[in-house]
Amino acid sequence: MSVERILLTNDDGVDAVGLRAMYEALADDYEVVAVAPIGDQSSTGRTLSDEVDVREHQFGYAVDGTPVDCVVAGLGELVPDADAVVAGCNEGANLGAYTLGRSGTVSAAVEAAFFDVPAVATSMYVPGGEDWWKRELKPAEFAEATRATRFLVEAADDAEVFDRVDYLNVNAPIAVDGAEVRCDRAPMRVTAPSEWYGMEAVRNGDGRVAFSDPIWGRMNATDVPDPVGTDRRAVVDGEVSVSPLSVPHAAEPNAGLDDLVEAYANAD
């Protein structure tokens, strides 16, 4: 199956600079139809609404809902003949196993897998520590991410990658750092999501509990707690990380439960 029509979505909103950069990178070679949230839906995971309002947008459709709403509405009704789904480019990295179920960008790709449609979720690492999200990004800064996505949409299909995996989680380094523009192409590495987990919770005096992820203060080559071969290490090393993944919740045979099931009949 060759890719001709792409459903493009994200979790930053249909007017986000990352989605625009991705649309423009893909539109020369593919028919691209955006079905993306009206506003920011970051960290909504696989939240699904009962129904959503849809309005036309210059890139396709704007949906008053989550990224998963967009994929279901898109593949189920608005763009049912899409050959692939691209989610992104997300403004900020989606690194580590613990982000996969939380990220709206990645969740859009997971939802596409249940429709049996190949998907690529693409995010860009933005330097700046814990304040990275305050940075105002420009389309040129997404060049590594969009170039890698365009390559993978074509090459992975030709190589029958999606016969073996459901989706690719791509994280790319920023293409512009201050006044410097990368002239060379960042290398690409096949990775596994980092298993490092360090979320912290602190109870305040006002009855609230605040959460923080300390990894953003450790995103440098000497301090990042991940070995070569993980997604986070690849991005810190200036590489494009590609994690080949399948949909979650795979059932494990037995898992030691057979004896428990037999014992259940006689349990108190």
Indicate the topology.
Elements: E1 5-9, H1 17-26, E2 31-37, E3 54-57, E4 60-63, H2 67-78, E5 84-91, H3 104-114, E6 119-125, H4 143-158, E7 167-173, E8 176-177, E9 180-181, E10 188-190, E11 200-203, E12 209-212, H5 231-236, E13 240-245, H6 258-264
Parallel strand pairs: 1-2, 1-5, 2-4, 5-6, 6-7, 10-13
Antiparallel strand pairs: 3-4, 7-13, 8-9, 11-12
GO molecular function, one term: 5'-nucleotidase activity
Family: Belongs to the SurE nucleotidase family.
Organism: Halorubrum trueperi
Summarize the structure.
The protein has 268 residues and is of the alpha/beta class. It is built from 6 helices and 13 strands. It is an enzyme of class 3 (hydrolase).
Task: Give your account of this protein's structure.
With 268 residues, this protein is α/β, with parallel strands linked by helices. The strands form 3 sheets. It has a 9-stranded mixed sheet, with helices on both faces. It has a two-stranded antiparallel sheet with strand order 8-9. α2 packs parallel to α3. The model has no long low-confidence stretch (mean pLDDT 92).
Shape: globular
Q: Strands across the major sheet, in which order?
A: 3-4-2-1-5-6-7-13-10
Using only C-alpha atoms, the radius of gyration works out to 20 Å
- CATH C-level label: Alpha Beta
What is the mean predicted local confidence, pLDDT? 92
> In the residues, how many domains can be counted?
1
Number of strands: 13
CATH 2nd-level architecture: 3-Layer(aba) Sandwich
Stated plainly, the CATH topology is called Stationary-phase Survival Protein Sure Homolog, Chain: A
Helix content: 10-25%
- Measure the end-to-end span: 56 Å
> Tell me about the biggest sheet?
9 strands, mixed
